[in-house]
Specification:
With about 325 residues, this protein is α/β, with parallel strands linked by helices. It has 13 helices and eight strands. The strands form two sheets. Strands 4-5-6-7-8 form a five-stranded parallel β-sheet. Strands 1-2-3 form a three-stranded parallel β-sheet. Bound molecules: manganese (II) ion. The site of manganese (II) ion (MN) has 6 residues, from strand 1.
Length: about 325
């Protein structure tokens, strides 16, 4: 069955320094394995795609990229450079690689313009944003130009995790709970919920936000979000219940989650039309992810939706 994957990462030498806070909590042997694959496009990556039947990889900069660059002008310049570089990789392999733009959110108007350039001139199919930017989250009105442009261009924004801007007391003393193990899940689910509760999807109802890692636990908590929303004080007046925005404006991928119970919960909560297969290369095993989606106890039409039909529709591939 055809497979399109869309949380697949790379790194360029110009961006390597930004990942120091991520490298700090990864076992060194694993980090060497990741590093050797992040900088590669045509050798190991294409071979792995061929070996496991991945037809198209939508590539993106690994977390955090230029969003942690303190100098706005440098961030803007490096984002453009990496998008130009990614475009050349896509041009060399037009049937195998697509891309999500890298954006310097430090300047939201510039980021919106770069999104438009990446989509219209470089052939990319949206953008991937690595969490907060200097502690500012995407519900902040300063980022409205980005949502306005994404809506006008009709392209999705993939919200990928990053380290939180501050360290949570509840994680003290447990390095094994940092990053992708748990901390990013809490950070990214909260980030998406800030957008829901902040009314971003009321203002920009046609926006599609994509979340990886089987929706960062949100499919599991829809009922409770609505139930408790009804008894809480409200910061913003929403037009719908919280779960409805998650169903209408958020799509999820299986990136980094090869778990049948989580997949079935997500299908029941959101529907098979809202879920897309992904690997999270090179941090997860392509072989394991493909084996998971191939053997998952779901119908063949749902498998086709998740493996490629939903991505083809959303990304116009
Ligand atoms: Mn990832």
């Amino acid at each position: 069955m055809k497979k399109i994957v869309l949380e697949e990462h790379f790194l360029t030498p110009a961006l390597a320094g930004y990942g120091a806070n991520v490298e700090a909590f990864i076992d060194p042997e694993h980090f060497r394995h990741y590093k050797s694959r992040l900088g590669d496009f045509e050798d190991i990556r294409l071979q792995e795609m061929d070996a496991h039947g991945i037809d198209i990889s939508v590539l993106s900069v690994t977390t955090p990229g230029v969003q942690v660059e303190p100098d706005c002008a440098i961030a803007v310049r490096k984002a453009k450079e990496v998008n130009d570089m990614l475009a050349t990789v896509m041009q060399r392999n037009p049937t195998r690689f697509s891309g999500f733009a890298h954006l310097a959110l430090q300047d939201p108007v510039e980021a919106a313009n770069e999104l438009e350039r990446a989509v219209k001139q470089l052939g990319m199919c949206g953008a991937l944003i690595n969490g907060h930017t200097n502690g500012e989250y995407l519900d902040d009105p300063k980022f409205w130009p980005v949502w306005e442009r994404a809506e006008a261009l009709d392209v999705p924004i993939y919200l990928h995790p990053a380290n939180a801007p501050d360290s949570a007391k509840c994680l003290d003393g447990y390095v094994e709970l940092l990053g992708p193990a748990w901390a990013w899940t809490a950070e990214t689910a909260t980030h998406a919920l800030r957008m829901v509760m902040g009314g971003v999807f009321d203002r920009f109802p046609k926006v599609t936000l994509v979340l990886g890692h089987m929706g960062e636990t949100l499919p599991f908590v829809l009922w409770r979000l609505d139930s408790r929303y009804k008894m809480m004080k409200h910061t913003h007046t929403l037009q719908k219940l919280p779960s409805q925005y998650i169903r209408d404006n958020i799509m999820i991928t299986t990136a980094g989650s090869c778990d049948v119970p989580a997949l079935l919960c997500s299908m029941l909560a959101l529907g098979a039309d809202r879920i897309m297969f992904s690997v999270d290369y090179p941090y997860e095993s392509t072989a394991e992810a493909v084996d998971f989606i191939t053997r998952a106890p779901i119908s063949e039409i749902d498998r086709a939706k998740i493996c490629h039909l939903n991505a083809e529709r959303l990304l116009r591939l």
